């Protein structure tokens, strides 16, 4: 396996930056060409707390998937720390996702058959032995910090929505990521729980210096971030 | 290492959640592997039994039979009577072979199914006509009375030794048979000896039901005066080759070289080996069909599992699982599923063989155990790799959107 120069032992030393240049994402159906993202140019700097806001169908989730390397653009260049992502094969991209990105989804996306602690530790298993700490201990620390340590061995369906989303954030944090991508993280939560989650994401940005990108359709949510990127019909406006 | 444990643990966790499905899927493999293992066990048992029979005949045994049986170590026709064509041995051959320097003994053998009676009881039995030299060859032992002697042959005495099974059929108490006169195809023979049991039969010849008489006394039943085989023994184990050469030289004076076969024990054992490896191959192929069906069952269920778990695959990919991680996970499942079937099959076969051993000398050897484990892992890989590849090649984004 090729060693990834992108994976330094001390991620904080290298300023993290993701740059999108002339990004297009198109889908072709039988009778029409659907342009989901139309010439997106965007830079996200290390330590930023950014939101991508737009109505549903605007392409904001697709943009988030591209930032998180879950998907590839139809055209254009994505670079992370000045390295062209399109040059990486699936294996390398998977490793990048594992080490650099933490996802938080609207649907929480925990694996229902795994306990809370197993869900949180799973990225460390896929990261093999590349972490210097014990994933189980780190998972417990995170649960303690989020006030749900007593749920460590419970299955996700025994948890409330707010608790599940905190577990998902803990999972996103287990590999010490540079970037957290949160796709409508409050979409399935009531206001109170939603606010807790948003506070938590703010704290991670401020205290832990993690770059956070928040995707939302709610202006109130977007307001909490320093920078807002508005997207309509696949274009940044 | 932790990664392998992780794969095994997640597979087992999944089986726990789908107990019935797991059971039914591995049942297919269980049946397949059991049939292969049991068929091998039967084949081996039968082979061991027959080999044992021949091995007990001693290493200096040389069997002379009509026809060409062995050619270059492979088998062309089964050993049998004169029906094979070729030479029809008679007393002249016995006489000329008896003069051979390297031969200790020559026992001609003639077998015929006959009706044998005592007072009002009549039975069907196998007449085995030979000389006293057949006694050490077959390892015959006397229970009561005496064995056939050389003088019985030369005098053409109408005497018979009875196997315990036929004796039991003719006489209510087999112990009283010695000294009685029985009738073989209407001719009176005096029972001089009762033989000890040589143990069960296995579809082949049953020594216990034979009626042994001097071969010259059997000429009325054998008007052509021919023999189906000549059992000879070399002087020592070391001059077997010379003995065989001598037999061939003597017999080629009368017959063509292709009309008879001179087989030492080793060659008889080789012949048995080649018959049974052929038989085993056929049996294993039959068993393999059910294994194939079991494998298809695994493949089918794995495809269903992949579809069911598409969303989960998407999540795993999002948090950093590579294609290989997903491939290994599903492959581990199909292999373990198949191994569960294979190991259960071994346990089941072990007990079945334990029971069967009361009637039949079947046994499971280490090779069957290895075959069972290797074959079931192999099936897990072969039939699991396609569903696993399908899972691994799912696009992460489409998988995570799948509900």
Automatic annotation (TrEMBL), chain B:
Compartment annotation: Cell membrane
InterPro entries linked to this entry: ABC3_permease_C, MacB_PCD, Macrolide_Exporter_MacB
A single MF term (Gene Ontology): transmembrane transporter activity
GO cellular component term, pick one: plasma membrane
Domain MacB-like periplasmic core: 22-249
Coiled coil: none
Positions of transmembrane segments: 20-46, 282-306, 327-356, 362-386
Pfam annotation, one family: FtsX
UniProt keyword annotation of Cell membrane present: yes
UniProt topology in membrane: Multi-pass membrane protein
Name this polypeptide is given: Multidrug ABC transporter substrate-binding protein
Organism: Candidatus Roizmanbacteria bacterium RIFCSPLOWO2_02_FULL_36_11
Upper lineage: Bacteria, Candidatus Roizmaniibacteriota
């Amino acid at each position: 396996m090729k060693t990834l120069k992108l994976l330094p032992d001390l991620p904080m030393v290298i300023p993290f930056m993701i740059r999108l240049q002339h990004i297009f994402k198109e889908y072709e159906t039988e009778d029409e060409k659907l342009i989901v993202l139309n010439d997106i140019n965007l830079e996200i700097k290390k330590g930023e707390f950014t939101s991508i806001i737009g109505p549903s169908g605007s392409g904001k989730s697709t943009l988030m998937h591209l930032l998180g390397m879950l998907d590839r653009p139809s055209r254009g260049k994505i670079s992370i720390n000045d390295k062209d992502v399109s040059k990486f094969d699936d294996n390398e991209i998977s490793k990048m996702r594992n080490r650099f990105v933490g996802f938080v989804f609207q649907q929480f996306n925990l694996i229902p058959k795994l306990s809370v602690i197993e869900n949180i530790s799973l990225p460390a298993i896929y990261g093999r032995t590349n972490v210097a700490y014990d994933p189980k201990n780190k998972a417990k620390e995170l649960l303690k910090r989020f006030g749900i340590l007593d749920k460590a061995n419970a299955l996700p369906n025994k948890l409330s929505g707010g608790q599940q989303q905190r577990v998902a954030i803990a999972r996103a944090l287990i590999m010490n990521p540079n970037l957290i991508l949160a796709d409508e993280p409050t979409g399935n939560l009531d206001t109170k729980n939603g606010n807790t989650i948003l506070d938590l994401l703010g704290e991670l940005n401020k205290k832990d210096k993690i770059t956070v990108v928040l995707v939302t359709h709610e202006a109130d949510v977007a307001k909490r971030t320093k920078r807002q990127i508005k997207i309509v019909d696949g274009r940044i406006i | 290492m932790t990664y392998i444990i992780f794969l095994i643990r997640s597979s087992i966790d999944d089986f726990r959640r789908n107990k019935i499905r797991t059971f039914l899927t591995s049942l297919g493999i269980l049946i397949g592997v059991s049939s292969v293992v049991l068929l091998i066990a039967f084949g081996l048992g039968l082979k061991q039994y027959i080999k044992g029979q021949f091995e007990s005949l001693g290493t200096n045994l040389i069997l002379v039979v009509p026809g060409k049986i062995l050619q270059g170590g492979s088998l062309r026709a089964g050993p049998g009577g004169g029906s094979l064509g070729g030479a029809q041995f008679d007393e002249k051959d016995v006489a000329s072979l008896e003069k051979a320097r390297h031969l200790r003994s020559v026992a001609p053998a003639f077998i015929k199914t006959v009706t044998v009676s005592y007072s009002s009881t009549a039975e069907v039995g196998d007449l085995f006509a030979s000389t006293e030299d057949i006694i050490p060859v077959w390892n015959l032992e006397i229970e009561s009375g005496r064995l056939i002697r050389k003088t019985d042959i030369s005098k053409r005495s109408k005497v018979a030794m009875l196997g315990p099974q036929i004796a039991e059929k003719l006489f209510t108490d087999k112990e009283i048979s010695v000294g009685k006169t029985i009738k073989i195809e209407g001719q009176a023979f005096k029972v001089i000896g009762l033989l000890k049991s040589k143990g069960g039969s296995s579809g082949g010849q049953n020594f216990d039901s034979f009626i042994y008489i001097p071969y010259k006394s059997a000429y009325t039943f054998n008007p052509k005066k021919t023999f189906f085989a000549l059992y000879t023994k070399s002087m020592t184990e070391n001059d077997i080759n010379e003995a065989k050469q001598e037999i061939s030289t003597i017999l080629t004076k009368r017959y063509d070289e292709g009309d008879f076969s001179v087989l030492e024990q080793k060659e008889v054992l080789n012949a048995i080996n080649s018959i049974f490896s052929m038989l085993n191959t056929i049996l294993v192929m039959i068993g393999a069909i059910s294994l194939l069906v079991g494998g298809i069952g695994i493949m089918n269920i794995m495809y269903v599992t992949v579809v069911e778990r598409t969303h989960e695959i998407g999540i795993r990919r999002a948090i950093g699982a590579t294609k290989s991680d997903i491939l290994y996970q599903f492959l581990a499942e199909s292999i373990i599923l198949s191994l569960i079937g294979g190991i259960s099959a071994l346990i089941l076969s072990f007990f079945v063989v334990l029971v069967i051993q009361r009637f039949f000398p079947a046994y499971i050897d280490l090779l069957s155990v290895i075959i069972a484990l290797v074959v079931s892992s192999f099936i897990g890989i072969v039939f699991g790799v396609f569903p696993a590849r399908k899972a691994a090649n799912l696009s992460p984004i489409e998988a995570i959107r799948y509900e």
